[in-house]
């Protein structure tokens, strides 16, 4: 589809590349984000990819056309282009030059998870909802490869696609006021991991001892869009040992 471009205030635009969450749209989002990482234009501040959009933050006062190097005021004095008009032109030109077969290099990240018990208080409820045993839910959840579509909601929170419909479960009617960092949850047809202690309404089925958000690290988020996540079931003793080694 033709990308839809619309302003977000006077220093950002959102580029919509699809209407649904799917691998094809994800590749287009990653391709556009990668294009601007390789070919930044004067005035570019930040690129933020999401499920179906790429948000481009820019400085209107520093904005320059990367081809003509003109500012918004045309050099021959013939007129004035608004920063929004210029950024639209830059984005449309970039979108026309995208490699639509783009495949980002995916890192496979194994995430150990201790399922059930106090660490996964909703595991039994998820199992009952689907007429499964808790062990079957664990087997299904840990046998999938999950694509990180985006990082959002909280620092380092990965939205993972690929959850089996057999265990897709609606969010809780009443959100919890506090969920511990590392907790793995199911919300509808997605699964994710709470990287910090925060309120939330997902069904909690386990917890990982790995820190997903490391504020003092040069790369604070353990995961990034395009990564592949594989969950590895571990016991409570392993969880406690791993947790101790990670602190």
Provide an overview of this structure.
Helices cover 23% and strands 27% of the residues. The protein is of the alpha+beta class. It has two domains: 94 residues, Gyrase A, domain 2 (2-Layer Sandwich), CATH 3.30.1360; 138 residues, Cyclophilin-like (Cyclophilin, Beta Barrel). The strands form three sheets. Strands 5-12-9-10-7-6-13 form a seven-stranded mixed β-barrel. A four-stranded antiparallel sheet has the order 1-2-4-3, with helices on one face. Strands 8-11 form a two-stranded antiparallel sheet. Helix 3 packs across helix 4. The termini are far apart. The model has no long low-confidence stretch (mean pLDDT 89). InterPro entries: CT_C_D, Cyclophilin-like_dom_sf, PxpB. Keywords: ATP-binding, Hydrolase, Nucleotide-binding. This is Kinase inhibitor.
Gist of the model:
The chain is α+β, with helices and mostly antiparallel strands. The chain has five helices and 13 strands.
